[in-house]
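Dear H.,

Thanks for agreeing to be a second pair of eyes. The structure we're designing against is below in token form, covering all 105 positions.
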């Protein structure tokens, strides 16, 4: 299950009619769907998103030390000091917030 699926299930748990295995359904119009989409686009980045971008930034910055094998993104993350991780996390947060701001302007 993806992070988004997990968050959606926690926010809006699946509901069933009484004691059956039939899921409850509801009707919505396009305005409701557009509003939900806009809320998702303008939501602040999650910690998981920020960490994923930070790991990718570090991985890209370490390209010069690769030899014949391309390492996974997590291998460098576990090797750097917490202070360096904090710098990459800060930069990732700024990048994600900038991208979301541009998408909503």
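And this is the sequence the design step returned. I haven't edited it by hand at all.
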């Amino acid at each position: 299950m993806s992070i988004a699926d997990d968050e959606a299930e926690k926010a809006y748990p699946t509901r069933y009619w009484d004691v059956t295995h039939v899921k409850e359904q509801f009707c919505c119009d396009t305005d409701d769907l557009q509003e939900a989409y806009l809320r998702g686009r303008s939501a602040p980045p999650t910690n998981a998103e920020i960490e994923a971008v930070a790991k990718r930034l570090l991985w890209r910055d370490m390209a010069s030390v690769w030899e014949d094998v391309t390492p996974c993104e997590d291998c460098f993350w576990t090797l750097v000091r917490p202070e360096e991780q904090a710098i990459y996390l800060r930069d990732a947060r700024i990048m994600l917030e900038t991208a979301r701001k541009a998408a909503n302007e």
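Two observations from my side: The two ends are 32 Å apart (CA to CA). Helices lie at 3-11, 30-42, 47-61, 73-77, 82-104.

Warmly,
E.
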